[in-house]
Amino acid sequence: MTWWVVQTEAQREHIVRVLLMRLRYETYIPRIKHRSRISPLFPSYLFVRSADRWYPVRWTDHVVRVLMSGDQPAQLPEAAITSIRKRESGGFIRLPAPPQLRKGQHVRVIRGSFEGLLAVHQGMGSRERVWVLLNLMGQQVPVELPCRDIQPLPVVAH
Fold this sequence. Notes:
Elements: E1 2-8, H1 13-22, E2 27-28, E3 31-34, E4 37-40, E5 45-49, H2 55-58, E6 63-66, E7 68-69, E8 72-73, E9 76-77, H3 78-86, E10 88-89, E11 92-93, E12 106-109, E13 118-124, E14 129-136, E15 139-146, E16 150-152
Antiparallel strand pairs: 1-5, 1-6, 1-9, 2-5, 3-4, 7-8, 10-11, 12-13, 12-16, 13-14, 14-15
């Protein structure tokens, strides 16, 4: 079996899910829990198990589109959904913990304008961002980067 990916209007995933379940479609919305807030892992998207007819899905209220491959819905393999479901615990997807960085730890920038440069971690910035010191034009310059754009370097024991 395969799945389709359905884009919904903002914050309408659960309404669309109920409407599709009434039409006897199997649906799946992976959810995460951050502090006390519950939200979809993929905001404005849900998965629908493929069936013989996709037009009723497309024309369901609050559906923006079904992701397509040519003139048919794109097929997402069962293994992809199984992989997401394996990360569930208590009905919520467990996201990997961000690497624990210490002030002064050396990191490498792995994305963005400064990709490939080495930096020194200075602390957490705003939401999911970190401050690092980059050596630019002979001086240490503080820069705020997304956490996902840096990779800690292994600590070498002396």
